[in-house]
Amino acid sequence: MKQLFKGEGFDRLVLAGGGVPRDVLSLFLEAMSAHDGEAVGKDEVRVLSKSNLERRIEELKKDSHADEQDLLIAGIYMLRSFCLSKKTNIFLVPEKMMQQQEEWKSLFNRLLDYRIIHQAGSALTHKSSAGNYQAFAIDIGCYAHFRKMENRFTEIDLSRSEAKDQMRSAPILTEQELGLLSSSVPQNAEQLLVQQPEEVE
């Protein structure tokens, strides 16, 4: 294992693959090919996760009907914007909203199918708000422009024992906030998703 990975390379690869063995293996083979078989580190995974997100978006567009493509692209843009503004890869959604609002439930389920977001937990309680919540993780490709995340972005590692407790302090994405995010999606949302922000050292 040490000959194949360096530093946090393996952990980052699993995170980038959303825990899906097929995606993890595919990214690993791509990383090895791109770097002539050298050990894979977190920077190599970070770069690959950008192209991986682009592929997932293309798959989503290919498989979805024309009339729903804009909605799905807007959904990705909204969730990425929310996570970047809150500086975290995890967000909570009220269970009640998921049960009662079919529009938002359908959006989350479709983005889960294409591994743009990943299920991180259910029936969670929040440390400062009443009710039960579902937890989701945004794909690592959505914040791959951060070369270093210290003091810029909080990444909760779902494989760690303290992850569940950390998620109980994650920001809550409410129906009202989704409405505000929806109204501010630009016409060129897809282009902005693919371009991504400038890399931050």
From TrEMBL:
Superkingdom: Bacteria
Protein name per UniProt: Uncharacterized protein
Species for this entry: Bradyrhizobium diazoefficiens SEMIA 5080
